[in-house]
Amino acid sequence: MPHSLEAADLAIQGRPKLEEPTEEAAPAALDWLPRALGQLDKAGLRRRLVTRDGPQAAACEFEGRRLVNFSSNDYLGLACDVRLAEAAQRAIQDTGWGSGASPLVTGRSRWHAWLEERLARFEGAEAALLFPTGFAANAGVVPALVDQGDAVFADAKNHASLIDGCRLSRADRFVYPHNDSDALAELLATKTDYRRRLIVTDSLFSMDGDVAPLDRIAELATRHGAMLMIDEAHATGVWGRRGRGVLEHFADQAPTNAAKLEGAVSVRVGTLSKALGSVGGFVCGSQALIDWLANRARTYVYSTAMPAAAAAAGVAGLEIIEAEPSRRSALLQRAARLRDQLRAAGFDTGASCSQVVPIVVGDAERAMRIASALKAAGMLVPGIRPPSVPEGESLLRVSLCHDHTEQDCDRLVRTVVRIGRE
């Protein structure tokens, strides 16, 4: 009696049953991974998961050791602020934890609507829209604005989320050298045969700590009739008179042109997960823009909404930023002091002018060795290597937060100097 339908069918047809392949005959689908991981190890590019114990703070517990934490983007020290925790708890008591659906179905609660209203008011925009993350905002907005037959112009050092958004858009992509507004001007003047054109740039670059020449880029966008999208993720809450970001900083420098400058920016992206101490991304702009994104940004339409508690914490963070401007002024003053100390000691901090202070090393393996030595000395300073930075530009990324002390910074400088001499 045949033991399977296949064997029975073969018997009926009078044909012999084929030998089934042995387990060794079929290569494993993922048997290439160990070798690929080994290549990452050899190049000094393999990343490994780390686990933090306790709250996010200027000093954290890692692997049973307390380390001064120079790796966080919690710039204003709000991630474990009790006021954000209390706001989240109130929202949980009101709506529970999970949002349960996409925002266009039932996932958008009154807490989400309240935060969007507050963000729009804070940014001086007609409307705002929340995304589950800042990455989702960038990856969704660019393809919603441009497609085949359009062109996008991007800074060479834009964040990965902007890069991926540009790739997903299917528009023709033109990358200009980092912060080179002359190169951008030439591209805009020559690449004209397109339905729509979009310029995308970070305002504050997350690895180099420098800022885009938004005044010049805004002027180019206006002159050439291009849309301009800026990502203020690392600047929101920290830069500008009211904490609105680098765009506000430039507007503060030229108040007579402030309205023209801000009017040239079509799309402003920000995040709740850095200076605001919560999680999620947002987009601000005209009501028409927000209505369009709510219909066409796939990362919005097809993502479950962030928990209402995260939105409530975002509102609390925003209120603190507005009420306590001394947090950002103290942070930027301390960052300027640290840059001066490092440069005086002979270290290359690039064009940084912000709370992100790179120590440029160049070689990826050397950057990781220094990062390991700093960790052994009680300081967590991440080594940054490709693909996060271009080949030959590996660095140590010092991220300052409000709660770091001058003593923390002095200790960092002394230790880096000592390690550099070894």
Tally of DSSP β-strands? 14
Largest sheet: 7 strands, mixed
The secondary-structure class comes to alpha/beta
- Mass-distribution shape: globular
Assign a percent range to the helix content. 40-55%
- Ranges where pLDDT stays below 50 over 5 or more residues in a row are 1-12
N- to C-terminal distance: 78 Å
- What percent strand? 15-25%
Number of helices: 17
- Strand order across the largest sheet: 4-10-9-8-7-5-6
Residue-averaged pLDDT, rounded?
Answer: 93
Protein described:
With 422 residues, the protein is α/β, with parallel strands linked by helices. Helices cover 44% and strands 15% of the residues. It contains 17 helices and 14 strands. The strands form 3 sheets. It has a 7-stranded mixed sheet, sandwiched between helices. A hairpin with a 5-residue loop joins strand 1 and strand 2 (59-62). The longest helix is centred in the C-terminal third of the chain and has 19 residues, at 326-344. The radius of gyration is 25 Å and the shape is globular.
List the helices and strands and how they pair.
Layout: H1 5-13, H2 33-42, E1 52-53, E2 59-62, E3 65-69, H3 82-95, H4 103-107, H5 110-123, E4 127-131, H6 134-145, E5 151-155, H7 160-169, E6 172-176, H8 181-190, E7 197-202, H9 214-224, E8 227-231, H10 246-253, H11 258-263, E9 267-271, E10 281-285, H12 287-296, H13 298-301, H14 308-323, H15 326-344, E11 356-362, H16 364-376, E12 379-380, E13 383-384, E14 394-399, H17 406-421
Helix pairs in contact: 3-14, 5-14, 6-7, 8-9, 15-17
